[in-house]
Amino acid sequence: MKKYLLDTNIVSYLKDPYSEYYEVVGRNFLKLANDAEVCVSILTLFEVEFGLSLSSTAEVRNFMQETIYLIDTHFTVLPTTRQGAKLFGNLKVRYVKKYGMKTNIAKRDDIDLILASTAITENAVIVSNDGVFKKLQAINPDLKHENWTLDGVTENL
């Protein structure tokens, strides 16, 4: 069974009917729902819980609570692991060197690097609308990536 690891942006598109990507992401998700294991990282829950704590209106609070419910009822939540941490260290060093970045600038991509490390160690396809994953694929071809904001996505980008 194929395994998918959804980035927070994809989870948000699945939940938000006002998103420009709501329908296409929903279609791509439904194509796979019965034939795949769909996961999120514990870090996605961290990000959504932060959004809930930060929310200043009842509408945003409800959206965040419904997103947490969606995760709790439809997805496997993957933890971070020691193996993933080791891969993260290696991947980040290669990322910084390949793209000539200063380490403090590269910190903004840490969560994405952890997600990529998790996807690789779990043999999962990372699903994201974030361009950093194409860069990471160039560094580590074991990273499989799909962007469900595009219609008809069935293969790695």
- Number of DSSP E strands: 5
Which residue ranges are poorly predicted, with pLDDT under 50 across at least 5 consecutive positions? none
Radius of gyration, in Å, reads: 16 Å
The CATH H-level homologous superfamily: 5'-nuclease
- Main sheet characteristics: 5 strands, parallel
Helix content: 55-70%
Q: Could you say how many structural domains there are in total?
A: 1
Terminal-residue CA separation: 20 Å
Outline: globular
In the CATH hierarchy, the architecture is: 3-Layer(aba) Sandwich
Strand content: 5-15%
SSE-based structural type: alpha/beta
Text of the CATH class: Alpha Beta
Instruction: Give the strand order of the largest sheet, numbering strands 1, 2, ... along the chain.
Output: 3-2-1-4-5
Summarize the structure.
With 157 residues, this protein is of the alpha/beta class. The chain contains eight helices and five strands, in the order E-H-H-E-H-H-E-H-H-H-E-H-E.
Q: Which terms would index this structure?
A:
single chain; 157 residues; alpha/beta; Rossmann fold; 8 helices
Structural write-up:
There is one protein chain. This protein has 157 residues and is α/β, with parallel strands linked by helices. The protein has one domain (2-146): 5'-nuclease (Rossmann fold), CATH 3.40.50.1010. Helix content is 57%, strand content 13%. It has a 5-stranded parallel sheet with strand order 3-2-1-4-5, sandwiched between helices. Helix 1 (8-15) crosses helix 2.
Q: What is the element layout, followed by pairings?
A:
Layout: E1 2-6, H1 8-15, H2 22-32, E2 36-41, H3 42-54, H4 58-74, E3 76-78, H5 82-98, H6 103-106, H7 110-121, E4 125-127, H8 132-139, E5 144-146
Parallel strand pairs: 1-2, 1-4, 2-3, 4-5
